[in-house]
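Hi R.,

Here are the chain sequences for the assembly we discussed:
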Amino acid sequence: MKAGLSLLVAAVLVAAPFLTGGYELQVLMVALLYVTLTTGLNLVSGYAGQFSFAQGAFYGIGGYTTAIMGRDLGTGFWINLPAGIVVTGLFGLLLGIPALRLKGHFLAIVTIAFQTIVYLGLIQWSGFTGGQNGILVPPIGAVSLFGATLFDITGLTAHYWLTLVFAVVAVWVAWRLVHSRLGREWVAVKDDETLAGAIGLDTTRAKLTAFVASAAFAGAAGVLNAHVMRGVTPDDFTIWISCTVVAMMVVGGRGTFLGPIIGAVLLTILPELTGSFAQYKLFLFGVLLVVIIIALPEGLVGRWRKSREARA
Amino acid sequence: MDLFLQYLANGIVIGSAYVLVAIGLTLIFGILGVVNFAHGEFYMLGAYAGVLTVTLLGLPLIAALVVVIAFSAVLGVFAEAILHRALRERDMTSSIIASFGLAVALQNAALLTIGPRPMLLQTDLSMLAVEFGPVYLPLPRALIPVAMVVMVGLLFAVLRYTWTGRSLRAMAQHRTVARLCGVRVERVAMVTFMVGAGLAGVSGFLMSSVLMVTPVIGNMIVLKAFTVVILGGMGDIMGAAVAGLLLGVVETMTSAYLTNGLRDIIGFVIVIAVLLFRPQGLFGKSVERS
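And here is the predicted structure of the full complex:
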């Protein structure tokens, strides 16, 4: 049953460009980008228990890395992608250092400050970042191996499939991380940091790796997003993007594996269903968030799991 | 030197507005433990309430001030029901996410009903000016620090000498014990939100003659208020007052002597530095960090 359902979902996702097109496909692609972002955030916030409101900033750093490298060095997507991951990973390390000293809302606020500095930096350092206008980014283009062109990624459909592959890889990597020794260290730090330290875990290392991993996920998504959206501007990476990612994670269920994925898809697609009430989209998004938080404190997946345990 | 004094005065004007917004935020945090992202929307809606009362209804400024306070108090009651009463016994993320949702909803409600066109409060007072030696300030600006001092003074008097103030302070210290001693916790929570929203609303109204009012002005002001609250020490009113003025002055000096581009960043840089080296805030007593 479970395997059948997953296969069905996978088949629908792969076939989506044949079933629909244009706007709907675009929305689906954005949902998949958010899946990568929330899965990344879930590593540090859901598993390691450290608040972070900086996912939007890492997303932006990834995007700007590819945009600036493409502009100044003429490198393409396949070189910029690892570069973007490394650069955002380093920024994650930078932000992770205060995480060694701070907890709870203090940490939340440092990440908010970091997010805001990055956003304002993108606007102000206009010689480097293009300021408010941002930078145009070309589509990914032809992919060749040993001189032979394998396939060409230019149109929406090709970018959609790449995003899908990307999201699947991201989710798979997250799954492996969470079920590795490192993942268990994160959970130990979340459950009881003092105890984790007492039994000989290096809690500093655990927290830092969680920050770096979560930033790297967002950086990768940022690189892809820049090419898919054909450009980067500072307003795509505000504190509100970070809050949206946090909201998706919480709505789906923090610390559950499937929760953030479901939350990302739901909160991207639900506001799009407003149809002729499109101008109320953001208003309804806000209301939806408040209602879900009040009604489902543990998130959708958390609630489902709880009710199943209650029956068993 | 003259120019320096002028910058200082401008900084104090902006800083006074920060103080009013930040004190509300720090009260709500200190007493109820709610991290309120929608606080900037209290500022924005207060500004609109005032500007629309004056321009659409043609009422005098004092009447507009009464409308702003009444409207903000109602907004505070509404926000308390959502962010505090409905979310009791939950961790901090719940109030952060819920208040983020509320902020998005209020901001877009303002956009849908009032529209994106910027507004500025213009009255007969705008023409008048105050001069202290070399310092020149239009009257509406000069009134902002005065209003700030009056309101903070009032708040202190209420906290110090009234039963409501005592219950507020008792709640801030220990919720359960306060309840056992007969503090009506529900009422105190509501009053806290009303006062917080009122201070932010009045700040927005005062600033509406200085800066343009649009539905998104709350975004930056709430971040500035968080900056002030951290610098002053979470939950510390006097700290917030000093830190707010300081931030206003530092920002003005930064844009005057360094570059305008750094103006909005400088506060956040200071916040990160302070949290790393002095987590209890610049003026706060030593507290637990978690």
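Strands of chain A lie at 135-136, 141-145, 148-153, 231-232. The first strand of chain A starts at residue 135 and ends at 136.

Let me know if anything looks off.

Best,
T.
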